[in-house]
Write a structure and sequence with these properties.
This protein is of the alpha/beta class. It has helices at 12-25, 36-41, 44-53, 64-72, 90-95, 105-112, 138-153, 174-192, 205-210, 343-349, 354-359; strands spanning 6-11, 30-34, 58-60, 78-80, 100-102, 121-125, 157-162, 199-203, 218-221, 244-249, 252-256, 261-262, 268-269, 274-279, 296-299, 302-306, 315-320, 329-333, 366-370. It contains eleven helices and 19 strands. Strand 6, helix 7 and strand 7 (157-162) form a beta-alpha-beta unit. Bound molecules: pyridoxal-5'-phosphate.
Length: 373
């Protein structure tokens, strides 16, 4: 079968295996598979289906539009979203049975004002120290009071209280204990106000892997489900298999003499006669320019380094003296089991995190799916 010029091969079996392994890390808690941002670049709808197959009772996305896209694709299970600017389609979300998040009393009022016949299911977000979304201190007290009133009057069902860690990828960071303590107090406040059957959740992937005290009723796993370690320098209790392999086929192969400058700005010069391969992916596909001259690929199971600047549509690799032909498969990253680099390696080479390496993929990359569907 022909390999497209630029292809992300997604291993659904690996994804399901990772989800099961993560569920086993938090045995007393429900699992929410996070499929925001097009499932971290893996394709939201197929990954959502695979997550449901793997038994995930919950899915999580950032925006209402993402949630509605899942409903339009036929998903009917428990689904939470949490990031909405004023004017967001709360009525659409509530009507579709999506649970929405209130991060302030003002946002709760906006949700309650949405013109729908069904009672909204609302979770409350407390800011325990990330200082992103969520209510903190007196604002939390205000949100809890308004939410409890809405529950008492039957205007809403308050189903959860949750928060998000700032430093969970550093298990020894003091902010983790501090956030957990703030969370416990916030939950106690909600209980005292009469919101006593809320689902409590705080953990992302790193906390699911390293911090049982923060598992509560549910854990929200994103990056680890895609087989990427939250911190590549750490050893985790569970083996994770990278789900995505990014590859293409060499569009050109040529022999050049020593001294030849390669790609824009001649940022790389051949030190000796060598063979260059042309890889048909560039920054339009999300390949970072900052990986120029640094990242590696695999051709025929052997590594080759990027030579010169990464361009919009393409980049060059230095193949040395090996035999290579136009059309040979070039693997940018994958599980790392056949000599190829991983997304974590590309993250290091481009000065970013592996989350960004997979999530920003786009352009002309075609996604294909492997494994039982
Ligand atoms: C993205 C996100 C997650 C998942 O984080 P990972 O580190 O990828 O596991 C969990 N919760 C919230 C609120 C998020 O925005």
């Amino acid at each position: 079968m022909a390999t497209p010029q630029a292809e992300a091969v997604i291993d659904l079996d690996a994804f399901r295996t990772n989800l099961s392994a993560l569920a086993a890390c938090a045995p007393g808690s429900a699992l929410m598979a996070i499929v925001k941002a097009d499932a971290y670049g893996h394709g939201m709808v197929p990954m959502a289906r695979a997550a449901r197959d793997a038994g995930a009772p919950w899915l999580g996305v950032a925006t209402i539009d993402e949630a509605l896209a899942l409903r339009a694709a036929g998903d009917t299970g428990d689904l939470l979203c949490w990031l909405a600017s004023p004017g967001a389609d709360f009525a659409g979300a509530i009507g579709a049975g999506v649970e929405v998040t209130a991060s302030s009393a003002e946002q709760l009022a906006e949700i309650l004002a949405a013109p729908v016949d069904v009672r909204p299911r609302i979770q409350l977000k407390v800011d325990t120290g990330l200082s992103r979304n969520g209510a903190f201190g007196a604002k939390w007290t205000e949100l809890v009071a308004a939410a409890a009133a809405a529950q008492r009057s039957g205007a809403a069902e308050i189903t959860g209280v949750w928060s998000h860690f700032a430093c969970a990828d550093e298990p020894d960071h003091p902010a983790n204990d501090a956030q957990e303590a703030v969370f416990d107090r916030a939950v106690a406040e909600a209980h005292a106000a009469g919101l006593d059957s809320v689902l409590r959740h705080l953990s992302n992937s790193p906390a699911t892997l390293t911090r049982p005290s923060a598992h509560y009723d549910l854990v929200r796993v994103g990056i680890a489900a895609y087989g990427i370690r939250p911190d590549p320098g750490m050893t985790y209790p569970t083996v994770l298999t990278p789900v995505m392999t990014l590859r293409g086929r060499l569009a050109a192969v040529k022999r050049v003499e020593a001294g030849v400058g390669v790609s824009y700005g001649h940022a790389w010069t051949a030190e000796r006669a060598t063979t260059l391969g042309l890889v048909p992916l560039g920054y339009a596909e999300g390949i970072a320019v900052s990986a120029s001259n640094r990242a590696e690929v695999a051709v025929g199971g052997e590594r080759a380094r990027v030579a010169g600047r990464i361009c919009m549509d393409q980049f060059v690799v230095d193949l040395g003296d090996r035999a290579a032909e136009r059309g040979d498969v070039v693997t940018l990253f994958g599980p790392g089991t056949a000599g190829e680099p991983t997304a974590e390696d590309w993250a290091i080479a481009s000065g970013t995190i592996a989350y960004e390496v997979v999530t920003r993929l786009g352009g002309r990359v075609v996604r294909t799916y492997r494994g039982t569907t």
